[in-house]
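Hi, here's the filled form for the chain we discussed.

Project: internal
Contact: R.S.
Residues: 255
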Amino acid sequence: MTHPSLPKRPMLGPLPVLRSPIGLAHAVTALLAFMIVADVLGLGAAAYMMSVMGDVASGAGDVDMGAVGRADWAVVATSGMYMLGLLGTATLFIIWFHRVRHNAEVFAPDVQRRTPGWAIGGWFVPFANLFVPRGIAKDVLRASQPDPYASEVRHQGLLNAWWGVWIASNIFDRFATDRYDEASDPQAIHDAAGWLMTGSVLDIVSAVLALLFVRRLTAAQNDKATAGRMPPGQPAPQCPAADGTGAGGGPVPGA
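And the returned structure, exactly as it came back:
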């Protein structure tokens, strides 16, 4: 007696698996702390340059060329330190951002409006990078909270504050740098150094808010993974303690 053949099951691709963002979050946090230190030093260098150029512009006494040289070296050195830190921080931040977006595909894929690839590419598309990454971050925050379908998104206020200050600091940094590069007399350099100081303050606030955002979102994903809170009909996630990148699991202390 022959039995009817069973219908063939459709071939599905591999299901997404949670990957711990904690190791990457620690690295990004450390680099953001480095950026804060670089900004504080840059603030001090700009203040020193402002003081020296103020003396020169006032014409009071002889010009101390040694002080002028030291002030110029301080501004150049701290600017180089800042740019080096920015390159490393931006690279690791985008890797972390893609990791948490990947995890959102496990937690609540139906609330994600853009594919995971946009978590990387969205930062490099002109004009779109002013709003696309923020939209992705909001969707990831929603997916990472206990109830992804709640009307409110936890930590959205922190996201909005960071994003607004980050855009403002980028615009102001470009303006202040152009003013400083174009300054050709002591008074103009004195004034431009003041703009650099304001830019450093904005950068510090932006870095602090970014650091808090990284910690809060990472902690939210870790809490949800360890508690196994998933939408109805979804399997419980598997969150390995460590993956191939060496980003280990476990709770985020103090987050």
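Let me know if anything looks off before we file it.
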